[in-house]
């Protein structure tokens, strides 16, 4: 199975090239890479176009303007989907794959049929892991939904293939490197490195396109809260997250105010999404068909 990889660039082309090079070092896997420049006002587009021209399995796309994180990544996802790719790894440009076998592992891994998105340990240079993250926007929960989602749903083969008590014990063992299904009412994956699976693309098209920056992870968790879709965390797999390379270049002395305003706007969008019906939320994630 070919693995698609989307890398979104804004300004920091050198960081993006390092990310692409880490993908090119992957063994025993066919990768197809979509590098998307998100309307960078520097020479990123020219630099990346020239770099990708020398990489047979890389396609470069230049957005005419900055579409934001969700829509920018969705451009690359759509390009790969049109090529028939149905398992796509979305990476921030400041991610480096330090394990040269990771892409091959992800392309061949057996994913439970209710898992739409898979995530990994995202460690900074000091080894601090930022996955999973706490969910901050919820659609409303009940004790029964909490119990059900903690178990991952009865369709989850991690439950049907072994005793429920054993599965629950593993889910709460924080030191265990075994894959676990996240409860969408409390935890979500970090958006810097996400594997969208064929289960996701059967029904949905990509990130919720309503935000410009921030709360993309919460929007995915809302989709899971409203539906039977689940996220799976695989702590045995690790990626290096150099953290906010593009943001450091883009923001000036008023960076904190820009960041605060983006967060307020995106939280309001996520809260509106959380108030929609399950049918409306499903339709909101179906935008490219």
UniProtKB/TrEMBL annotation:
Superkingdom per UniProt: Bacteria
GO molecular function: glycosyltransferase activity
Pathway of action: Cell wall biogenesis; cell wall polysaccharide biosynthesis
Domain Glycosyltransferase 2-like: 5-142
Family annotation (SUPFAM superfamilies): Nucleotide-diphospho-sugar transferases
Chloroplast is among the record's keywords: no
Keywords noted in UniProt: Glycosyltransferase, Transferase
Gene3D superfamilies registered for this protein in UniProt: Spore Coat Polysaccharide Biosynthesis Protein SpsA, Chain A
PANTHER family: GALACTOFURANOSYLTRANSFERASE GLFT2, RHAMNOSYLTRANSFERASE WBBL
Family of this protein: Belongs to the glycosyltransferase 2 family.
Protein name: Glycosyltransferase 2-like domain-containing protein
